[in-house]
Design a protein that fits this description.
alpha+beta; 3 domains; four-stranded mixed β-sheet; elongated
Length: about 625
């Protein structure tokens, strides 16, 4: 059978050629061999097989459906029709007119009479007759001889439809909801599959056929065909373009074994036609990426280039949709950031969609993008339209400014923000209000009118969430430490003070480099790890990763803060990549507040980069690691 397959495929002159000198297609190189033949018991016209496909350095075994030949000489004697004739009959377009004619038939005899008057029974005539017969067949008054004739004529009509050259007519039948046609759909599906093998379907028709199969994939006779249709796309590779590429992406979720091959082809065509793809088509492609939880740096980079090139063509709704989808896909690059900056600079004063500003700020938050142009434009939008922004959006709009330690150009921004929040206080959740207040504190702004309201007994009695209560304790502690005009602490002492767990990444790294830290400190008696500053709230803000101190200081006791020697004690904070903005230089607001508060209480603070420490450790560069720590300690604040 393998020999037969090779001969058949070579005769068809399609991409499955096993000739070593055949030029490789853009997506698949040479098909080496086929094997694992399995006769399809339900249909003797087909054999199931697999074939090895080489794509770059990857080789994949893919399923194929091969027409079973009884005489190999037939493929040499018959001319090969590579494509469906360009002129499609108007037969399918006249179907509604034909259907109305048959609807006037009152019984089966009238249907047969009308058929006898046709000089040629076209597929649409046959289909119209079939549907009318179905409508009339439940009539018990019909003569038995007429009913017998009905069966013979019905078989003839079905053969007419099956043998039509108008493939779209058969696809339309598959898409009908008529229960009468259901028993015949498997036969029509097999006919379409034969035409796929013969390269007679367009890319759009293959996609439409696939959508039908995917809808019916609960039935094995349909589902087992899906993974074999990849060959249709490979044969029609040259016909895939910017107008139909979204259809190709839309059927990707239906594939399993052959998904990688179809995906590679889709990616190649996306790279080829990206500059011609419209906004709506790109939106459809992104929808598929989200559905598939797709990750491809190559394709995402193409999308970034497309957005940068087409940013001027997007309206606000389209911009919101695309930036939200990229945020959901967790992908950005320099071109996307520049595109967003260009868009908001160009249309900033004209943007009336608050949700678009929220979408852009969510994008910045997702990727820690501290872009002055973007943030300034968003701050101007809030200052100009803040009183009309829905209460549910205020947290998303205001929190990023403090989180990025960004100070808007307008001097009255924060006082205006406090007034807006106060106006909407009863419409906002306690958690959102606490997040906004923390944003103020990150940039050393103190909304005392707002805190007076939330720390009132009338307000606190309605706060039930433990997470919100923790935020309230943090706000109370932070303001007590750094705001001279704050009459606190106002919150009752935290009765549920719990030990804070150190981030497992930091903890693991400290365990690995502890010997080097002890060497720098002059001995293990001078080093303590994971120290929570006493008498403050239980929060990561007051957790010291490493303490370097004189030998006599016991940091496990709650009174160490009153006994330490400032000149001989160092608090070391190890900052993860997530603690920085995308520039890897600016710390985010929570980490800046952490440093600030430790400094206010009198500690010398040293910040170390988790990434740099990891690089020294993994490269076994102990000397470099120790030098980095010593130099950083010398620069302690």
């Amino acid at each position: 059978m393998a020999t037969a397959i090779r001969t058949y495929l070579k005769a068809k002159k399609n991409i499955l050629s096993c000739n070593a000198n055949t030029k490789a297609s853009g997506i698949n190189s040479t098909f080496r061999r086929s094997f694992s033949d399995d006769k399809n018991r339900s249909n003797p016209q087909f054999s199931n097989s697999t074939i090895m496909v080489e794509h770059g350095y990857n080789v994949q075994e893919l399923p194929v459906l091969v027409r079973t030949l009884t005489d190999l000489s037939e493929i040499y004697d018959k001319p090969i029709v590579d494509t469906e004739p360009s002129r499609i009959s108007n037969d399918s377009q006249n179907y509604n007119l034909i259907k109305s004619e048959f609807s006037q038939c009152l019984d089966l005899r009238d249907v047969f009479t009308l058929l006898s008057k046709c000089t040629k029974i076209t597929p649409s005539i046959a289909l119209g007759a079939i549907e009318r017969i179905y409508t009339l067949e439940k009539n018990p008054t019909q003569n038995v001889h007429v009913n017998l004739a009905k069966g013979a004529i019905l078989d003839k009509l079905l053969k007419v439809v099956t043998k039509t050259k108008d493939t779209q007519t058969i696809i339309n039948i598959l898409n009908t909801t008529s229960t009468f046609m259901e028993p015949y759909k498997p036969k029509f599906s097999e006919e379409i599959m034969l035409r796929v093998l013969d390269n007679m379907l367009s890319v759009e028709q293959i996609c439409e056929f696939l959508k039908f199969l995917i809808l019916k994939r609960g039935d094995q006779q349909y589902s087992e065909i899906i993974d074999k249709l990849w060959i249709g796309f490979v044969q029609r590779e040259a016909d895939i373009n910017e107008t139909n590429i979204s259809k190709l992406f839309s059927v990707l979720p239906g594939f399993k074994a052959s998904k990688r091959t179809v995906l590679n082809l889709s990616e190649q065509k996306l790279s080829e036609y990206w500059n011609k793809i419209t906004v709506s088509v790109m939106q459809q492609i992104l929808d598929v990426f989200i559905q598939e939880k797709y990750l491809s740096v190559q394709s995402f980079a193409v999308i970034g280039r497309w957005l940068h090139t087409n940013i001027h063509a997007l309206n606000d709704d389209e911009m919101l949709d695309i930036i939200s989808k990229l945020t959901q896909l967790k992908y950005t690059d320099d071109q996307i950031e520049i595109a967003v900056e260009k868009y908001i600079k160009l249309k900033g004063n004209k943007i009336n969609m608050h949700v678009l500003i929220v979408g852009i700020l969510n994008y910045c938050m997702q990727f820690h993008i501290r872009n002055d142009e973007i943030l300034n434009a968003c701050s101007k939008h809030f200052f100009n339209q803040g009183s009309t922004i829905p209460a549910g959006f205020l947290r998303s709009v205001l929190y990023p400014f403090g989180y990025f330690n960004f100070k808007p150009l307008h001097e009255q921004f924060w006082s205006f923000a406090e007034d807006v929040v106060l106006q909407n206080l009863n419409k906002m959740t306690s958690d959102d209000i606490c997040s906004i207040i923390l944003s103020f504190i990150y940039v050393s702004q103190y909304p005392l009118k707002l805190t007076k309201r939330i720390f009132s007994s009338e307000y606190l009695i309605n706060v039930k969430s433990s997470d919100t209560l923790k935020k309230l304790h943090l706000i109370d502690t932070a303001l007590s430490i750094e705001c001279p005009n704050y009459l606190g602490p106002l919150m009752p002492k935290d009765q549920y003070l719990q030990p804070i767990s150190q981030d497992f990444r930091v903890k693991n790294l400290i365990n690995k480099i502890l010997v080097d830290i002890e060497w720098v400190a002059g001995g293990k008696q001078n080093v303590s790890t994971s120290i929570l500053v006493p008498h403050f709230c239980s929060d990561q803000t007051y957790l010291i990763d490493i303490m370097l101190h004189p030998p006599g200081l016991n940091c496990s006791k709650s009174d160490w803060l009153s006994k330490y020697d400032k000149d001989k004690t160092r608090a070391i904070l190890i900052h993860l990549p997530d603690d920085f903005c995308t520039d890897n230089k600016n710390l985010i607001g929570p980490q800046l507040m952490r440093r600030k508060h430790l400094q206010i209480i009198g500690l010398n603070v040293t910040s170390l980069s988790y990434s740099l420490l990891s690089q020294f450790y993994t490269s076994h560069n102990s000397n470099g690691l120790r030098d980095y720590i010593k130099n950083s300690l010398g620069d302690a604040d």
